[in-house]
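Just scan my protein:

. . .
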Amino acid sequence: MFTAEIYAQRRAELCRRVGDGLILLPGNVEAPFNYPNNTYAFRQDSTFLYYFGQNVPSLVGVIDASTGEATLYGDDFTVEDIIWMGPQATIEDLALQVGVAKSKPMAALAADLQIAITLGRRVHYLPPYRGLTKLQLSDLLGIKPEMLHARKSWDLIFAVAEMREKKSAEEIAALEEAFEIGYQMHTAAMLHTKAGRTEHQVAGIVGGKALEYGTGVSFHTILSQHGEVLHNHDHSGILTDGRLLLCDAGGEHVNGYVSDHTRTFPVSGKFTQKQKDIYNIVLKAHDDAAAALRPGMMYMELSDVAQRTLLSGLKDLDLVRGSVEDAMAAGAGYLFMPHGLGHGIGLDVHDCENFGERSFDMSEVEERLKASATCIKRQYWRLMPGTVLSDEPGIYFVPALIDKLEAEGKYKGIVNYEKLKEYRDFGGIRLEDDLVVTETSGRVIGNKQIPITVEDVEAIVGKA
């Protein structure tokens, strides 16, 4: 948790941006695993965490945008709760820790909101992404669940996105600590990779490091010898010499800030020449993007830097023919990297994605998106000092995608489909680090580097 002053300043700035009405920020509640008292590991809502700081279930924050007054709603533990969970801070204490002078029991929330609604005041809320939060908002506001999305507050969405976009010194420090968790996770994966072990064993070691150094993984670990499957959560494979293992994993800092890194390495500890050729193309794209980063740059410009490097390297291997610019214009890079270069990083691994472009149609606010230029719409994202993003180029050989595009006649004369037949069983390679935009350029987050060059990777794999 940061200081009470930091949370108070954030709430004051949010009020300034929203202007009037009530800002309703529900925290998350416990989610049952298979019966009510056996729950998933608790994860607080990131926006609630940003403005109210408490990583405690079943709290709601309300801010009066007109006066700046904030109230924390929640219920104190009963003796029965204390028997099971031990002594806990009161709601009043939790509120004071984050600079909130008023606290009330949860039962008071509905009546307080109803008074505001009766007076014709706007209640601003973000579109909910959890079913229980939808039901809670529906009940509190008297809106059918299916109508919540239509009545979301664009003013609040843009205010939150713009504030969370630019990280403060305290946030960068937390991200640096999250990097250390990621470093331990990824080096452990490399050290313990050896033929005959299972992907489950390595994934378990990775998750254990996340708990040893932080509060757990920041997303479900992607670890597979089928690196061409972008989000492969199946860990059932047996590690086999000659194959590549892709590990995309991150850890979470106690303040909620996260890391997100990817490394791809040979199970045997040695790259084949073919693997090395593709790996070094991806590594150069990764490094070129990091070196090109400048404040004021558009995200799409940075993505193009990486795409050109990838296509140039593939051209050298005769997998792409003609000019790189023609390949860029045709969009041929999609066959090899069917995802963007990166995404926002902060309190989430896809920062603000719960109200970003992948969550719902944003066409009605197109001009506002251009002016806002935050990560919630990558087409208009301008990378300014304090922006943090992932840098994760990759090359993937997906047989189904290759067959589909060849059958459609896509990229004819640009992609050498005949040569591609030699790579159908290759898999995929992705390399990822987190970048922060500075006043003059950009830098990789972390005080050291997770092994990434061919030599450094080969020196560590299997050496546990």
Observations:
- The chain has two domains: 4-165, 169-344+387-460.
- The CA atoms of residues 369 and 380 lie 7 Å apart.
- The chain has a mean pLDDT of 96.
